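Anyone able to model this chain together with nicotinamide-adenine-dinucleotide?
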Amino acid sequence: MAHHAEKITLNPGGTLKVPERPVVLFIEGDGTGPDIWAATQPVLDAAVAKAYGGERQLAWQEVLAGEKAFKETGSYLPEETLDTLRQFRVALKGPLTTPIGGGFRSLNVTLRQVLDLYACIRPVRYYQGVPSPMKEPQKIDMVIFRENTEDVYAGIEWPANSDEARRLIAFLNQELGCSLDGGAAIGIKPMTERCSKRLIRMALKYALEHGRKSLTLMHKGNIMKYTEGAFQNWGYEVALELGEQVVPEAELGRYHGQAPAGKVVLKDRLADNLFQQILLRPEEYAVIATPNLNGDYISDALAAQVGGLGMAPGANIGDGCAIFEATHGSAPKYAGLDKVNPGSLILSGAMLLEYLGWHEAAQRIHQALPRVLAAGEATYDLARQLPGTREISCSQFGQSLIKQMG
Ligand code: NAD
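re: yes, here you go
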């Protein structure tokens, strides 16, 4: 049955109301963006068709950003694009080039800030057949929720010896008893209860809804007590809001060391320790919530452990608005060659399907991906690391995935 394309809206409780044929926006992206988008769209459409047999369909609508937008409208990020994103709520985005020089702000950062997409979410799991430096990469199955709006990434900093840095140092030394070197560069690390709690709340809700065993608060609160330390304390306060559903690790004794099904164990780990843990005992971690800088580092470290950024999906999500995106850049030297790996954008698309609640369609993609590799086919980046594997193009990789969906 053919349905009309309709807008995704919000239920009164703030959850998504997804029609059978939702309008989903896409931004092709710059450089290799059009190559990976062309390979990705048929995969997502096929996954939906195979899962729901025509009952559901994605109604793709393009919005302009980056070089294509500049050519057509004279602006890299037209106001119309932002309005459309606000209205239609869900988008899939290819990589955007940040032009160097001229003080141009990263479009990716601008999108996150303007739309208040406060959580950067990176699921990290291993697909059989992907080359990995780990002995047992299959033990890694984590989702990272990184705070996206504050911390040292707020961009509040001044160069050494600048007038602003000197004035601030004078204030800190004279008024607040510091003894800073007058020639220091200064950066500010703001972290609020509101932004920390909304991020942790989103991560905890995700863990509960997806039956994940634990949520770990990753922080460096032993050193940065009032910022990162507060992040940990605010995390435990959020847990209290959710009552019996969340069990702090220290109280696990009550449950003989193992939380009952349906409950989430709340852990906290110092950032440096967690970097060891994800190498040595990755199976003990499921969902991680962390401030901006820690999150940036651990997301890439974990992506490397399961085979690198070429296959790492991601999303930036706020309240009722979400942009799913390839986590790598626009790799301009390969633009138009139909060569690069579309895996990151395809898996970001699978995340999008899960966000819509279309898990059966996402599952088709997760199942088919290792079958492509098992059939001895991969794009150049993986093929060169896998002896005996035949190199296929970006579009062939998409087609092969569709074939493997059965
Ligand atoms: P990049 O990720 O574009 O490319 C670095 C190298 O990684 C490439 O030369 C290639 O060898 C490899 N690579 C990247 N994507 C690949 C893929 N899909 N398949 C196989 N190999 C792949 O990083 P860069 O060169 O530092 O950045 C290029 C541009 O992208 C810059 O303008 C940067 O600002 C932008 N960028 C955008 C995003 C984003 O949109 N989220 C993220 C990072 C960088």
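The longest strand covers residues 119-125.
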